């Protein structure tokens, strides 16, 4: 199997230290802090109505916010409770939200992509999960024969027997499991105790049931981690041979995420230690045959993400990397973010207000954004950089009717400086990110971000 040069990676500690600055993760452009409150329910309804003329397939996201336990590192929108009965009214409200949305959506548009995130989607008891799956099937046209990309985040600590079979029978074909770290001291320090045996058991069951892809999440920079302890975690994880791995940097921002206040600053690894953990992890993953897809993600060469990247069809949205571009993303649940045509919209973040809004017959839109032509241009560039690590100026000029070098004259000095430092190559025709620059792709994308100077936002560091 041919591996393209863009799927190689070189860890350059000097470059990383120089460019490791705060920046957006670019799950969208413009990023969520720039959404506006004047984007309301009527704005979303109009976007949904207009989207039908395109005939684009659909992508569905369901946010299940509940967690039994509070993980101290977590920055997700969640509701911590042991009351599993709370899932019943939540699922009923999701059905109401789907019905209100379907009033504006052509029912013949197929669902290419489906994702359950959270929180902990498997917090839902089997009865509530069954009701939710039946509701989705009632409202939307699902693809048969495993043709869709249908995934769910699994917490092995909150998984009833038979739930994986239920999900697989419905059509889910990929799972993502949060591992974070297998060291018992680290697990206790972040209040997430999850044994290797429990995780391996869920993976074994998923593979026996025919799930096509297993993805595991790890976090480096957690309290009490050392290069040696994380190497042991990685060794155990690789023994399970996941199809994909995400190795995220822990961003310690206790002023923004109050649960992180329970992590003493003194327990967090130093920046140099974090870099050593990352460097050694990358070397281990490359030796094990994994390719760096980008933005913390690794995959085996025969994984769909790796193949899509080589073929130039890789895509990225709020759900992460995907092989399904050209869809309208509908989002359900508190705080969920939709992407319909040239718009973004985010739901109300408060659980009770989200529910009462639906009960009154209204879509629970809190804020959003209409993207202008300049936004769409820059979003395209940032997306292609994150997915392809290259830009073809002539193709951009044809697609958007512009002269790249003239249009982005203000960005050229920053790009030329990064070229001098070895992060990228740029000539009259193309921009190509080097193997040394791939870890710093967020910083390269920032050269095209027109919003960074408009509103001060506290972002995590690039590495």
Care to describe what's here?
This is Coproporphyrinogen-III oxidase. It is found in: Cytoplasm. It comes from Acidithiobacillus ferrooxidans (Thiobacillus ferrooxidans). Its main location: cytoplasm. The chain is an alpha/beta fold. It has two domains: 1-28 and 373-463, Arc Repressor Mutant, subunit A; 29-331, pyruvate-formate lyase- activating enzyme, CATH 3.80.30. 36% of the residues lie in helices and 20% in strands. The chain has helices at residues 13-19, 41-51, 87-102, 126-139, 163-170, 184-189, 196-209, 227-239, 271-287, 304-311, 351-359, 373-388, 393-400, 404-407, 412-420, 441-446; strands at residues 58-64, 66-67, 79-80, 110-118, 141-142, 149-154, 174-180, 213-220, 244-249, 291-294, 297-299, 315-317, 320-322, 328-332, 337-340, 343-347, 365-370, 390-392, 424-426, 430-433. Strands 1, 4, 5, 6, 7, 8, 9, 10, 11 and 14 form a ten-stranded mixed sheet that branches. The longest helix is centred in the middle third of the chain and has 17 residues, at 271-287. 44% of the residues are buried.
Architecture of the largest domain, CATH level 2? Alpha-Beta Horseshoe
Biggest sheet layout: 10 strands, mixed
What class would the helix/strand composition place it in? alpha/beta
CATH superfamily of the largest domain: tm_1862 like domain
Report the end-to-end length measured between terminal Cα atoms: 30 Å
Tally of contiguous helical segments = 16
Average the pLDDT over all residues and give the rounded result: 94
Shape: globular
Subcellular location: Cytoplasm
GO molecular function, one term: metal ion binding
InterPro entries: Aldolase_TIM, Coprogen_oxidase_HemN, Coproporphyrinogen-III_oxidase, Elp3/MiaA/NifB-like_rSAM, HemN_C, rSAM, rSAM_sf
GO biological process, one term: protoporphyrinogen IX biosynthetic process
């Amino acid at each position: 199997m041919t591996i393209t040069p863009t799927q190689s990676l070189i860890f350059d500690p000097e470059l990383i230290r120089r460019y490791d600055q705060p920046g957006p993760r670019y799950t969208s452009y413009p990023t969520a802090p720039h959404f506006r409150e004047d984007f309301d329910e009527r704005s979303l309804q109009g976007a949904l109505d207009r989207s039908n003329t395109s005939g684009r397939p659909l992508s569905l996201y369901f946010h299940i916010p509940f967690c039994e336990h509070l993980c101290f590192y977590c920055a997700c929108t969640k509701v911590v409770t042991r009351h599993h009965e709370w899932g019943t009214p939540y699922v009923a409200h999701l059905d109401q939200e789907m019905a209100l949305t379907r009033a504006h959506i052509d029912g013949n548009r197929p669902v290419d992509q489906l994702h359950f995130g959270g929180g902990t989607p498997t917090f839902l008891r089997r009865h509530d999960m069954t009701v939710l799956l039946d509701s989705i099937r009632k409202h939307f046209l699902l693809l048969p024969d495993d043709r869709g990309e249908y995934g769910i985040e699994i917490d092995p600590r909150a998984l009833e027997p038979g739930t994986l079979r239920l999900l697989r029978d419905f059509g889910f074909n990929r799972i993502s499991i949060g591992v974070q770290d297998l060291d018992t001291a680290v697990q206790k320090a972040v209040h997430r105790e999850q044994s290797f045996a429990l995780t391996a058991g869920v993976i074994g069951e998923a593979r026996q049931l025919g799930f096509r892809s297993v993805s595991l999440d790890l976090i480096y920079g957690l309290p009490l981690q050392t290069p040696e302890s994380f190497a042991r975690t990685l060794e155990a994880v690789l023994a399970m041979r996941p199809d994909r791995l995400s190795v995220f940097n822990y961003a310690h921002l206790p002023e923004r995420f109050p649960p992180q206040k329970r992590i003493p600053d003194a327990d967090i690894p130093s920046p140099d230690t974090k870099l050593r953990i990352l460097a050694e992890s990358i070397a281990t993953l490359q030796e094990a045959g994994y390719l760096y897809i980008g933005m913390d993600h690794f995959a085996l060469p025969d994984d769909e993400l790796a193949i899509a990247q080589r073929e130039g069809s890789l895509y990225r949205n709020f759900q992460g990397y995907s092989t399904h571009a050209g869809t309208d993303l509908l989002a359900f649940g508190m705080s969920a973010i939709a992407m319909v045509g040239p718009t973004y919209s985010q739901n109300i973040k408060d659980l009770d207000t989200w529910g009462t809004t639906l009960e009154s017959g209204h879509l629970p839109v809190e804020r959003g954004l209409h993207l202008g032509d300049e936004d769409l241009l820059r979003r395209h560039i940032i997306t292609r950089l994150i997915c392809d690590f290259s830009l073809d100026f002539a193709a951009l000029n044809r697609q958007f009717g512009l002269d790249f070098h003239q249009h982005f004259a203000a960005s050229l000095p920053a790009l030329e400086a990064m070229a001098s430092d070895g992060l990228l190559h740029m000539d009259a025709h193309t921009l190509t990110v080097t193997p040394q620059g791939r870890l710093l792709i967020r910083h390269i994308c920032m050269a095209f971000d027109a919003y960074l100077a408009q509103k001060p936002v506290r972002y995590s560091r690039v590495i």
